[in-house]
Hints:
By secondary structure, this protein is α/β, with parallel strands linked by helices. About 30% of the residues lie in helices and about 20% in strands.
Amino acid sequence: MGFNAFSGEAGQDFSDLLKTTPASDARGNGSDSAAFAAGFSDEELEAVVGPERRWSWIEIDLSAIRHNIGVAKRRLAPGCKLMAVVKANAYGHGAVQVSKTALAAGASHLAVATVNEGIQLRRAGIEAPVLVLSEPPASAIPLLLRYRLMPSVYTVEFAVAYGEAADTHGVRAPYHLAVNTGMNRIGVRFDEAVEFARRIGFHRALVQEGTFTHFATADCAETLDFTMQLRRFNETVAALRAAGIDPGLVHCANSAAILRYPETHMDMARLGISLYGFHPCPETRGYFDLRPAMSVHARITAVNTPPLSEGVSYGMNYRSTGSVKICAVPVGYADGFVRALSGRTSVIYDGRLCRQVGNICMDQCMFEVDLRSHGTARRPDPHVGDEVLLVGAQNGVAVTIEDLCELLGTIPHELCCGLSMRMPKVYLR
Length: 429
Ligand SMILES: *Cc1c(COP(=O)(O)O)cnc(C)c1O
């Protein structure tokens, strides 16, 4: 395939590299401008998109995002709003693209972790309500008001500063009250929420647009702690109402709770990991048809035929059996292809699983094409430029993010964030 879908939205923003002409570089550092070929136009240089600069990229299938929104929407009662959690660059999938897709598919709200993540969405022209999932430092208040980003609130000092700044500028200061019902991360403790709301309630600019909590164990088999958090949250909301305080949009469900516990859906639910196609826990497998949106691609950059017993990569803890080709691909642990996977995963080449061998390097890794193990099947013949899948499915074989997480003892959230650190993204619509 070509790379027409490439958005230029890489994990890192290299756009400034394109704006500086070689000639101005030369002036800047005093070197000889004759050393540069200045005759290339910016358009010509920009046309060399990410995967043509380095042969590795992530594909994000936006139709999978739409599909997963549909799975969640069908689970929610009509009228229950859906908040797409797009923090950490949409778990590595690209915040702007995912947000636009999720909103078009039926999400009404977005959630981010940081003020900068919110600003990025606004600058991309996204108008939907954006909730920042924690309370930023008070010094960030001008940005919240300028970009209409709703903070989570749980300290009186922040709330008052926020309300006063809004008042000064003649605008409202909407927020969601975060309630700590037992996770003990952030939020006003559940039994102090009414008192807290009363203490800040005098401020005319402040508007409590929502009240939420977060579950620590909605994805766990054991339900005791979950049940306690849910009970505390329901009691808190009831107590707020009894005190004459409008809690606004009441929400608590993450992906696991959306899929497992309909009683948590309330006014709105926050879809994170399952938006990207992953099951929050083994219990939901088989019940919901989620589709992973991310796959990881590369092209072979070198093919070696090491003789029997020669080693491969740092440490040489793999040795050639003499009838293998060793192929290098430009994906390493600095691309989130975690070094602890060394020798433990496979890549898909030509529709077959091939063992990744040798230690994964910072920027490259190697895999083995065994020339004997294919019986009467067509003999594999790897070449520089051939495409390889490091995560994805082809020809009935698959390597999934979840497989890799199993090996690593981590969760897809973490692996996806890492994989988007440096590899450019190609979007499939
Ligand atoms: C990250 C986050 C979510 C999304 O959780 P998933 O398990 O990925 O669905 C929801 N709510 C809060 C407060 C979060 O921090």
